[in-house]
Amino acid sequence: MELSRRAFGTGLLGALAGAAGHVAAQSGDVDMLLVLLNDGSGSIDADEYRLQREGTAAALERPEILQAIARLPTRSIAVAYGEWGSPGDPQIILPWMRISTPEDAEKFSDLLVAAPRRFQSYNAIGDGLVVATDLIRDAPFRAARAKIDIAGDGPDMRSLVPASVARDRAIAAGITINALAIQAEGSGPAMRLSSLRAHYEENVIGGPGAFVATARDRVDFAYAIFNKMIRELT
Q1: What is the pTM for the complete model shown?
Q2: φ/ψ of residue 51, rounded to 5
Q3: Interatomic CA distance for residues 198 and 190, integer angstroms
Q4: Are 120 and 84 within 8 A, CB to CB?
Q5: What is the dihedral of CA 34, 39, 40, 43, to 10 degrees?
Q6: What is the pLDDT of residues 120-133, one digit of tens each?
Q7: Rounded CA separation 54/196 (Å)
Q8: With contact defined as beta carbons under 8 Å apart, do 34 and 160 qualify?
């Protein structure tokens, strides 16, 4: 699909070219393909964005996560990281990498934190799901399970492919989509988060065992994404 090819090409930055070549050379069996797809939209300020990247990186390096991976039959998963926002232009920040050891997790996390931000607008969740689905389809690894782990603080808006349509295509391809709904700064009482959770339940998640987790703010994000990863791995 043209959308995913363009996003994949523009999302990989020159500073990561060497790492991308190394990742592309990997192949084989893993227990799960996991695309981490976070909110890169204009509603995320610099501090929130940093907390989101660092929280994801820290969760992946937690001993509990690595222990859960070590208990899997192949003792490995493959992870890719992307960000959604602008209609038709989600970004794949890091391509596939096998995570099996603490060193693997540290390398992925270091690359993630170091990667520059590409500013985006709006909340085109559906287009992010399209790219993540194609990324899983074209993965150099074989896995019995494939999941998209999406996080955001707003509903799907202005996607070229609506989130519900992209969700259904992913489910048809055997992919499970889970979501993390984040309370937006200054967005009012808890009902706002409840409404966002309901939107994700109706339009975004799907597949066997799909669920929506919640975070009260970006500071809570690291704890929430850690718990979400544990749930997905066990």
Answers
A1: 0.86
A2: -60, -40
A3: 13
A4: yes
A5: 180
A6: 778 899 999 999 99
A7: 23
A8: no
